[in-house]
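Reopening: Carbohydrate ABC transporter permease still failing for me.
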Amino acid sequence: MSFVKTKKMTIFDYVNYSLLAIISIACVFPFIYVFSVSFTDPEVYVPLQFYLFPEKWSLSAYKYILSTNSFVNALKSTVFVTGIGTVLSILLSFTFAYVLTKKHVPGRKWMLGGVIFTLVFNAGILPNYLLMKDMNLLNSHWSLILSGLTNAWSLIVIKGFLDSLPPELEDAARIDGCSDIGVFWRIVIPLSMPAIAAFVLFFAVSYWNTYFNALVYLSDAKKWTLQVLVKSLVIDSDASGAGSVGSDDRVLPQETIRMASIVLAMVPILIIYPFLQKHFAKGVMLGSVKG
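Support: Ran it again with your exact input. Result attached.
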């Protein structure tokens, strides 16, 4: 019969766990407040009062936001940018990183050096804006997609993962008659699914939270993304607390509309994340340790 020896808790452990618990609660409270205010009925809402749970539940703020054309347009824009951008980013990142793993490719060292150079030096806001202007992409959703297709950090991490794949599998596929493209799609991509899942989450969150580029490149309010719209509701709207008239002719407090818009902007990512979480940790660790 074996006995498992448990570690005795020290004073440092108790203090450490207590501090971590306090920090965790402090991080969770703002989310609880946002959810509570967004679901609070306008009739019982009191400004500047903390709500742990709504006194009276209501979906009035959500019904009002979902009925407005501005939110629907922003949602469509964000879904388009996130969907198309994530797919293109995955294709470009993995194909480019795969090329960087092949030592026989002409100019490989120069391409890898260029990637590392962009990791250290950034062109800045003005050159990127002028580039989008010269490409006639201003006030277009493609400016948000093409400006963030990939980055040096992603390419280096993906390259490290692809370097860890057994080269014998590619050699066997070539013996069976596969071309380089066939090896990539039939061997490399199926083996890279954990890493692909991890970077799908990275790129999707990045595109979904696109704010600064949308603020700079998009001048038409009808093409705004959710983050710009939320910023407009939270910061640019009337700070006096004046409300808006909902579909049921009730005056809705501005604060409930703001919090509801924040919740609607967060929910899609919160729904997707649990499905990718099991692949996320594995995908990040793959290729990080060799030998």
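Residues 238-242 have pLDDT under 50 and may be disordered. If you still see a failure, please send the error message rather than a screenshot.
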